[in-house]
Design goal:
The structure is a homodimer.
Chain A lengths: L18 H12 E9 L7 E11 L4 H11 L3 E5 L4 E6 L2 H14 L6 H16 L6 H12 L11 H10 L3
Antiparallel strand pairs in A: 1-2, 2-4, 3-4
Helix pairs in contact in A: 3-4, 4-5, 5-6
Chain lengths: ~170, ~170
């Protein structure tokens, strides 16, 4: 955590940090719950489902991403050439269900991201129980994922994925 | 605050909210401290200095902006056609110095926005004490404002403002 910022002319003593609620606020402002899909011919359903929790910052604020990584005790930080930011990201279903999801159940999001989180959490549950290998559940996962407020570009249209999910008999 | 989000399959009881640290996290993620300038021939220095603290959200998250407004007990919320978001904004120097600045002195920002905040707070102090009517202080305000990590478009170049600030003899 940044400890040596000089507040010239400060009237208020700094208060001890409640990092848990700070994280929830930070993620409400800047974090992202998303679910992406890849075509994988070798998989039973033909489609790989990849949930991801991420927070991005510029280089000057890299320390905060490291604090968040230490807090969740999982995930990695990588540089994204595309938008020239650093991204803290958790992709492992086990880590998401063990660390990330319980945090946001307890310290709840206040923006519309709360709705994305509910869908995200449900999708992680399905994958964890291997229910995403069922055509109908996979179709529901695709519907839910595409109803999330994701600003990043999609590789496939929802219709294309649903078509693949429906075609392959499992 | 959003109270009726259903967490289906939740394992964690929700914790009582620490709104102060939530706000600091939220602003670290999404908030903005900025200082803009307008040419005003009638003013002594020819330049008006306008600090602004703001947070933007989409319509679905308007409730959080209202919570933040209630917390700071000042500022307004308006719809921005330009980027189709709602913006909570505080522009009054008195309100900034009474409510907003003391909050962030006590519940300190952790990202590079902390550096912007120190500059912002100093500029508000100068305006409050009418020191911005002095050419040299005004030039310093312009330099500091243009070194802040502001992503919005500037109406004037720094050089243009410094030229106007230097020309007018006060």
């Amino acid at each position: 955590m940044k400890k040596n910022v000089q507040y010239v002319g400060s009237y208020q003593k700094s208060a001890p940090m409640d990092f848990k609620w700070y994280v929830t606020g930070f993620v409400d402002g800047e974090g992202c719950f998303s679910v992406s899909f890849s075509m994988r011919a070798k998989l039973k359903t033909g489609i790989e489902v990849r949930p991801s929790f991420s927070v991005s910052q510029n280089r000057r604020s890299l320390a905060v991403l490291k604090d968040i990584q230490n807090y969740f005790k999982c995930g990695g930080i990588r540089y994204s050439k595309y938008d020239q930011t650093y991204k803290y990201e958790v992709r492992s279903i086990a880590d998401l269900r063990k660390s990330v999801i319980p945090h946001f159940e307890k310290y709840q999001l206040q923006t519309s991201k709360a709705e994305d989180f509910v869908k995200f959490s449900w999708i992680c549950d399905q994958i964890s129980a291997s229910r995403h290998l069922n055509n109908d559940v996979l179709a529901e996962i695709i519907e839910k994922a595409y109803s999330m407020n994701n600003l990043s570009k999609r590789k496939y249209t929802k219709e294309k994925l649903l078509k693949v999910a429906g075609k392959k008999k499992i």
